[in-house]
Amino acid sequence: MNEFVPLLDNRVRDVKKFREKIRQIPMRVIVEGTRGKSSTVRILEEMMRGLGKKTFAKVTGEQTPLLIYNGVVIPLYRKHHSVLLDYETIPTILNFDVDAVVIENQAITPYTMRYLHQIVKPQHVIIPNIRVDHNETLGTDLEEMTHNFVNNYRTTTSKIHVYYGEPLEEIRKVVLPILSEFAEKHSEKMNLHIIKIPPRSGYLCGIENYLVDKYFIEYNFGIKIDEVEYVGPARSKNMGNTINEAEYVRRTENNLKIRKNSQGIRYLNLAKVNDPYSFLQALSYVIGQTEDPVALVGYFRPDRVGRTQLFEHILSDLPKEIGPRIKQVWLAGFHTELVYSHLPPAMQEITHPSTDITDIDSILSHVKKHNMILITMVNRVNPFMDKLVDQLQDRESKHYEIDFKLPDIHDSREVSTTQG
Amino acid sequence: MKNGPKKEDKADHRKPFRILVVEDDPDISTILAFFIKKYGYELCGSAESGEDAIRLIETTSPDVVFIDYLLKGSMDGVDLAQYINKNFQIPFIYITGYSDSHIIERVIHTRPAAFILKPFKGEEIQVAVEILKNSLSCKK
Questions:
Q1: CB A409 to CB B51 under 8 A?
Q2: Residues from chain B contacting residue A38 (CB–CB below 8 Å)
Q3: Cβ pair A86:B135 closer than 8 A
Q4: CB–CB of A77 and B111 under 8 A?
Q5: Residue A292: what are its φ and ψ, rounded to 5°?
Q6: Which chain A positions have a beta carbon within 8 Å of B124's beta carbon?
Q7: What local confidence, expressed as pLDDT, does residue A127 receive?
Q8: Which pLDDT tens digit goes with each residue over A207-254?
Q9: Nearest Cβ partner of A72 from B75, B79, B128?
Q10: CATH number for A211
Q11: The domain spanning residue B40 has which CATH number?
Q12: A277 with A301, same domain?
């Protein structure tokens, strides 16, 4: 507590500074919605930087929030085990020249979402998609969730451009009328301009993150993305590489690529794709790439009971949706027995409802023995999934098992690592 | 960035910030050295391997270490970062050509002050150092 009070005081000061400075930035963009917000921010930051715009971006990050300014990535850490992050870096960055700010709005609660709008006062809001997730706080169905998103715009009294990138028609036809109705109803107070990104034929899960940014750039700068000289993270030795649409498609496909670790276990981490609808889309895409048997492993969190319930429906419908390709399912975490009891008999036969962290080795042995592709699902952030994903990736990387000790730093021949 | 940060100018007039570069590619190392001097910092040493870097840290006590992900010798950049955390408590900044999320995750576990993705421009070096300097002065 003694540490917390001054930190909180500093936070109030930092937020005040942040609000004052951020509103002076000429272009202010908030990215919100359900899935792919971080990717959308990262892609837009790259594109803006490629256009020579000094861009400050913030993403939530898997482990810790990340600030990005002009190509430099700065992780934010917690101070002294406090719940407060080291936010003093943000005012520092805002002392530099900033042409544009792009901030991810975490979809936690309607209040937190609206609070960011009040601070940033964005002229542009990018929504790659709105899917049913976080329904403990954001609404029980797509309609209610969409209303909670559009209520964010009540904080503005000026013009605001909303770029909506949802590629799936069945979701667009629910969300777009709510957006339009809100714009019409509040037209005297604000000018809500909705830019509908047209869906393309075929759907690659996650491609909307790129497409919505592409339209943003074309709309605001009148530049075709494919003609932009790219100076962002093309990486390797290809300095000055030109990024075109094919590159973003390749990256999106790469996110859905089945990986193989050094133990020969094939896996794909879809636990990050934690809105159930997107998970189903991604799973269908992956299953279309292989004829091999597939195993699923998921962890249910006690604070995500809404997601648990949605995944229960997804699991129940799997035999109908994708046929008999799923050969084994492991359910870990909370309420797994209840989920299991609601599954149809065909799914119950292949499901282990009482999996825990001690079963990870046997899961990995099983999928290897039966040449299955292991797909993680439901929730990424929990000890079970941390251990499982770490083990999968440890085995993929020769560096992960290093417990580095230098017996004598003056004799490098004695240094022993597994690097070889 | 036109002239670096608009405030915090006072710190710039004190002794130059001392930087150690650990990079296996001599061309990149040369470019880094050029930018370090250009922006008024001091290059206190260059190493191509983690083992050489450790020796140089002991003898030169840099303010910050720039670390490439891939190094010569038996350590990679993350091994070196872990060693620095354990033994020196000196801030470090990764300079890496890898934007793969697995590598970024692994890199962040070592709590770097920042990381700069290759290909980089000189002003990115300046931005990273100035943010670090400000962060260090706030902590004092």
A1: yes
A2: none
A3: yes
A4: yes
A5: -75, 155
A6: 70-72
A7: 96
A8: 889 899 999 998 999 876 553 333 333 333 333 334 567 777 777 888
A9: B128
A10: 3.40.1190.10
A11: 3.40.50.2300
A12: yes
